[in-house]
Amino acid sequence: MIPKIRTGTGGTYGLVRYLYGPGKRDEHTDQHLVASWNDFAPDPGRNPHHTIAQLATQLDQPVKAIGDRAPDTTIWHCSVRADPGDRHLDDNDWATIARRIVHATGIAPNGETTACRWVAVRHAEDHIHIAATLVRQDGRLANLSFDRRKAQAEARRIEEDYGLRRLNPGDGTAAKTPTSQERFKAERTGRTETPREVLREAVRQAIVGAATEDEFFTRLREAGLRVKLRHAPSGDVLGYNVALPGDRNRDSEPVWFAGSTLAPDLSLPRIRRRLTDSPADTAQPRTDTPRTGRSAPARQRRDAAGIAEHATALLGNGGDEAAAQLVGAGELLDALAQTSPAAGRAALRDAARAFERATRSHVRAENADIRALRSAARGIVQAGGALGRGEDGGATAMVLSTLVLLTLAAARWHSARGHAQQAAASRQAADHLRAAYQQTAATPMRAMRELGQALPEPERRRHEATIRAALGEPENRTGPPARRDALAATLAEAEKAGHDPQALLEEATSWRELGTARNTEDVLVWRIRRIADLPSPPSRSDKPTTGTTHVKPASSRMPTRAEPPAPARSATDARRPAPRR
Fold first, then answer.
1. Fewer CB within 10 A of the end CB, N or C, for the chain?
2. How far is C-alpha 503 from the chain's CA centre?
3. Residue ranges of the chain with pLDDT lower than 50?
4. Which distant-in-sequence residues (6+ apart) come within 8 Å of 343 by Cβ?
5. CA distance 241 to 226
6. 8-state DSSP, 499
7. Who contacts 159 (Cβ-Cβ below 8 Å, separation ≥6)?
8. Is 243 in contact with 254 (CB distance < 8 Å)?
């Protein structure tokens, strides 16, 4: 059950006329009162002798009685809508619900005969509208302190009492949803999203690649947005407004949105605090690396995977300082959504949008350092788009595998603090990330499974025994042993590169969140490939077309004698965030 409150000025005639009218699309039917302040208010819908003007006049009487002392805001309007899956509620149910809402919000507390005048109008099966004036009948002004929060809390109690679908309680940090007028306008103009939603995402993405305030505004303009800055008399910038080109009001003027109206964390002061932690000296990514031949997108994604792993561990520790890691993780998701291969980009955009809600709560971590996450996100944006194959595809799968675990850790962190909406958003983001991972990792994982199946039988059995020991699986368990060909192939490649497979497995399994993974093999494969700095497996299209079809082993791709291989990383080094570039 969703209550939505608005306030307005002037008399109630316009609002009452709308409630009793046909609606914007003739969607209003059987318009009638279900409750009122005295249970005797005129009902133009059911009584032909009553008019809309009569009802509006009676509602407005306390406001007119105090004359010039009337406040600027005099109208209180609350729509209360049931979920589509809820059971049918009759007029008596809706009347009781209306009385509970006006009591909880302070419009008309139970037993007060001199409270505000109000009516509840029903013109559809699934919702009512409560219209009230904000001057009490005793001449005092209504106390609307925290009325929206009180209405939401009462709605949760109504859901429980009536056996309706239970919605997650909020904490007042959610972004404002588009109004019905904005949605109708978007439909009329052929938009799939409202300007508010488009602008919110564009501003988030502009923050990701920006190191300074000027760069942030430049990125907004480069994204095609109209930008208007608000200046103080001293010339200092106080805030900003953005608008979509072509989005105009009835007076043919641009429809501007302030950053704070898009989302609480998109106000200029909040953005400035975030940019303070920005790595302003981040170097532009190089186009290649002589030693590995990896592209800039691949290198940046590998670095990001290690940094995300560290953030996951901080979330697992449960401290309040992890709140800042959620903000950085949100930027990382936005960066990947902008630059990842087309195959998984839609799912990544959905993940970034869902996780946006998880980045905001009342928990503050003022001294937390998220420069590593911001640097990783900026590096990904600066490196440009990644391909869906080769090193780019493998590195994308690597970071997505880690981010799935990070979002699950975020869900538990929020749940421990009673942040129901943020926890649900984190789990939703994890589902979208799994979908993106499956699309991205299908080719490299298939290639590794084929390599594992082609291993000599003694070598494959030896690696499988190492895997069972590391995972604590008994050798004499019933049923056929589990085949983990991709993991066996990764261990074989790491061994040829000079690493100890058992030590790598022990290190990878000691990290957090492995138990929450749906497929532990995939997680271990990408962790080990990152720890050992193994290249992405070749796809079928990379195999030679003439001569032998044997894939060149990792040892043949080792550095030359003049460039000795780097030593294997220790467990301590692996947990340390990757260096910022």
1. C
2. 37
3. 280-291, 540-581
4. 388, 439, 440
5. 8
6. -
7. 1, 165, 166, 167
8. yes
Contact 133, 60 (CB under 8 A): yes
d(CA 315, CA 321): 9
d(CA 122, CA 50): 17
- Per-residue confidence (pLDDT) for residue 275, from 0 to 100: 87
* Residues 250-282: b if buried by 16+ CB within 10 A, e if exposed: eeeebbbbebbbbbebbbbebbeebbebbbeeb
Residue whose pair of structure tokens reads 């080990």 in the numeric block: 528
Domain 2-162 is in which class? alpha beta
Distance of alpha carbon 377 from alpha carbon 76, whole angstroms: 44
Q: How far apart are the first and last CA of the chain?
A: 49
Domain ranges of the chain: 2-162, 190-276, 296-474+482-539
CA 205 – CA 173 distance, rounded (Å): 20
Name the residue with tokens 């946006």. Answer: 356
**SS3 of 573, please?**
helix
Q: How far apart are CA 137 and CA 141, in angstroms?
A: 9
Q: Measured between alpha carbons, how far is 450 from 483 in angstroms, rounded to an integer?
A: 12
Largest distance between two CA atoms of the chain: 100
Q: From CA 281, how far away is CA 378, in angstroms rounded?
A: 11
User: What are φ and ψ of residue 557, in 5° steps?
Assistant: -100, 15
Measured CA to CA, the distance from residue 343 to residue 436 in angstroms comes to 8
Helix or strand holding residue 383 (H, E):
helix 371-383
* Phi then psi dihedrals of residue 183, to 5 deg: -65, -45
- Crossing angle of helices 371-383 and 322-339, rounded to 10°: 0
Q: Which pLDDT score is estimated for 273?
A: 87
- Interatomic CA distance for residues 485 and 454, integer angstroms: 9
Per-residue DSSP letter, 216: H
- The distance of Cα 465 from the centroid of its chain, to the nearest Å, equals 41
Report the pLDDT value the prediction gives residue 368, as an integer from 0 to 100: 64
User: What are the tens digits of pLDDT across the range 272-331?
Assistant: 988 875 554 444 444 444 445 689 999 999 999 999 999 999 999 888 888 989 999 999
Identity of the amino acid at 155 = A
158 neighbors 346 (Cβ within 8 angstroms): no
What is the number of helices (H) and of strands (E) in the chain?
Answer: 20, 8
Q: Are 329 and 553 in contact (CB under 8 A)?
A: no
b/e for 441-463, b at 16 or more Cβ within 10 A?
bebbbebbbebbeebeeeebebb
Cα separation of 9 and 7, whole Å? 7
Compute how many other C-beta atoms are within 10 angstroms of the C-beta atom of residue 9: 10
